[in-house]
Write a structure and sequence with these properties.
It is built from 3 helices and 13 strands. It has 207 residues and is α/β, with parallel strands linked by helices. It has a single domain, classed as Metallo-dependent phosphatases (Purple Acid Phosphatase, chain A, domain 2, 4-Layer Sandwich). Strands 5-6-9-10-12-11 form a 6-stranded mixed sheet, with helices on one face. A 5-stranded mixed sheet has the order 4-3-2-1-13, covered by helices on one side. Strands 7-8 form a two-stranded parallel ribbon.
């Protein structure tokens, strides 16, 4: 599957300077947060591919005007053409804004998903907004990653964890590896290709 990963910064080629056909060929779009609802709605319309998203810490407006035609996968595990994708959006607490969580709250969210991951015999992609602590986050208070994500990776061993929140202009690499997991910063956009488990290939469940 060819997947378009997005977060934080709209890509002008897909928005201001869009040309017909530029989004052809994508099987799935995943948004890791902090993008305008109108942008996501435009992408899902032009790409003719499912668009799944989690919330960033600046996505409070989604409660009133969610991205049309897109599916929120916060605290869910969904299957698209056999690819198992789980969503855990939000950032660490740094203000009174929306979609911010303490480490304790994030650990609780993860625990609630353990059974679902087990029933699905694993997860292929974990879609977050924040990075795991010390694995793609930044040193300032607002952009620190979640410590809770590290034992989650040890336990679930997803093939990919895609996140946003930390802009590449901060000097953070686009991609790194933790064990068998590719940790990918989706800021702006990047493209990955990943094949689903053959035993899951015929399944699509978006709740």
């Amino acid at each position: 599957m060819k997947i378009l990963l997005l977060s934080d910064e709209p890509e002008p080629l897909f928005w201001d300077y869009y040309r017909p056909g530029r989004l052809d060929g994508f099987d799935l779009i995943l948004s890791a947060g902090d993008l305008d609802a109108e942008y996501l709605s435009f992408l899902v319309t032009m790409a003719h591919a499912p668009l799944l998203y989690v919330h960033g810490n600046h996505d409070g407006g989604y409660e009133v005007h969610p991205p049309e035609g897109c599916d929120c996968i916060e605290d869910k595990l969904v299957t698209v053409n056999g690819l198992r994708i789980l969503g855990l959006g939000g950032s660490a607490v740094y203000s009174r804004g929306p979609h911010q969580y303490t480490e304790r709250q994030m650990r609780r969210r993860i625990r609630k998903l353990n059974l679902r991951v087990w029933l699905h015999k694993g997860v292929d992609i974990v879609l977050t907004h924040a990075a795991p602590h010390d694995h793609g986050d930044d040193t300032d208070y607002a952009h620190r990653g979640f410590e809770a994500f590290v034992p989650m990776l040890d336990r679930w061993k997803p093939r990919v964890l895609a996140h946003g929140h930390v802009h590449l202009r901060y000097g953070i690499p686009r991609e790194r590896t933790y064990g068998s997991t590719r940790i990918i910063n989706a800021c702006g956009y990047t493209v990955i290709e990943i094949d689903p488990d053959p035993s899951q290939a015929a399944k699509t469940h978006i709740y």
